[in-house]
Amino acid sequence: MIFSFFLLLKKLISQTPLTTLLQVDATYKLTWNELPLLVFGSLDADRHFHPFAIALVSNDEDSICYKDLFNQLQLISTQENNRPFYINFIMADGAPGIRKAQKDLFPGAKRLMCWAHVIRKCREHRKLVPKDKWNQIDLDIHDLQLSFSDSLFQCGASLLMKKWSSDTLIKHFQEYFYDQWIIKLPLWREKYEGAGINIPSTNNGCESLNGKIKQQYTLRNKLHLSSFLPKIEQMLHDWSTNSLLNDFVTKPSISTTLELISIKWSNSIDKISILHWFDSWYIVPSSNSLIAPAVWLQMYQQQQ
């Protein structure tokens, strides 16, 4: 039997029209019967996480659970804001349940996975390669993550697999990476750095809030349900109060310090090397660039 308690306050759900990103993360070891607690929310333009709702569920692995919760979130958001919650991006872990629910309910949304999870799992398998080769492999994975288009990522992943396949000493890691991150969890291919403009590459904000729940509300104890429910009520009240003091920022705040740094940078860089692409987009070479911006742009356009 699958059950769920979906809990929120009006002030929290009123923030959903300000974003198209939904972040979901589960935390455990809060209750004596190990009921998972799901947190729903989103980062604003200043990288501050804003929770929308929480759900106490009996099972966080079944897609039926996530479908029900997503439907509830949409229904309540529509009722309170007079418009649906338009979701273009969903960031969560690689659980099959949430992946299937997203495909069924939000087929047009991009399914993102936390980059920190990917590299952490890869590093846990570093023993599959000789120590003197790991630094280069780690660098290769980071370079691939810096892709800024689907075609570029796919081309880079293909070239990386060919590169690793030529070295028999890293064959086992190459097989692990291909099986886990290219075949089984291809959704990572949608969380390279350029997968979404102004979209975070990690789920750290949501996960950090889960850590605060254990530290500040349960004191790292497993509570009986009768004791935990009042804690949930207190959490929602605190989050709602905090949202009154900290607005959901839709445009990045620019500090005076950052403005001064920008002025110094603009005065020191060779402006001739900057290529105007279109609109407000510019191609700026790195400090150790190997090719000119015009050549880079030509190579990029050929990949499209």
UniProtKB/TrEMBL annotation:
Keywords: Signal. It comes from the Eukaryota. Residues 1-15 form the signal peptide. One of its GO terms (biological process) is regulation of DNA-templated transcription. The keyword Repressor does not apply. Residues 22-120 form the MULE transposase domain. PANTHER family: PROTEIN FAR1-RELATED SEQUENCE, PROTEIN FAR1-RELATED SEQUENCE 10-RELATED. This is MULE transposase domain-containing protein. The lineage of its organism: Eukaryota, Metazoa, Spiralia, Gnathifera, Rotifera.
